[in-house]
Amino acid sequence: MTQNASSPSSTSQKVLNIQTDVEGTLIERPNRFLAIVEIDVNGTKSQEKVHVHDPGRLIDILYPGNRVLLRKASNPKRKTSWDMIAGRSGNNWILINSAFHRQLSEWVIENNIIDLLSNADTVLPEQKFGESRLDYLLMKGDTDIWIEVKGCTLAERKTASFPDAPTTRGKRHLDELIKARSEGHEAAILILIFRPEAECFTANGIIDPDFAQAFEKALEAGVNVFPLLFSFENNTVIYHSQLPFCKNVLYKK
């Protein structure tokens, strides 16, 4: 099995500023894209509808009573007046808005954070391969590199894991990357990890054994996996380092 993750020293580079407008308390999450949050603006409390731009369960972050950070929606006609940006976990704010994954992954590629992806001739977003549309096709000379990006917000006992909800789409993306390798292309997965306490990364076979098994097959096929650690501090996303793989895939409780 090829393990492509290593553990270099932290670089701590500021990546992206994300404005937040108010801190609130989660009341409930009626569905995966909607939350009800109580906010206090100038001494006036109100319960607001908030858009959750993350399809994951987020059960250790979005639970009643937890603190969250919101940004006012730019479109005043939208049904939800606010966007969920981050949620509290211990002493950390965790970025839980996947709308920023494109900007963060572009920063990784453009700033040559990963040797395999550095100094590309061409970077094409949202390219079709097989039955899927993958996040990037990167071209370096005669080499094509197919890239998929995943965001990781789940961590337990300093172990970051993905997914936090079953994902047939995620497994299909892995299958496509395996196919790309079989056709002679390079392939890579960027795992954007937003749990700064994490020390290693693993696929979560407790939540989704099919994804975890496909993840193992992808490694065996030579798909490169890069678990990248970020934090969200003072409205700024900060890149820290590449994490190693944990010793075991989470298959059992």
Automatic annotation (TrEMBL):
Sugar fermentation stimulation protein C-terminal domain boundaries: 100-234
Family note: Belongs to the SfsA family.
Name of the coding gene: sfsA
Location of the SfsA N-terminal OB domain: 27-96
Cross-referenced CDD domains: SfsA-like (cd22357)
One Gene Ontology MF term: DNA binding
Organism: Methanolobus vulcani
Matching HAMAP family: SfsA
Protein's name in the database: Sugar fermentation stimulation protein homolog
PANTHER family for this protein: SUGAR FERMENTATION STIMULATION PROTEIN A
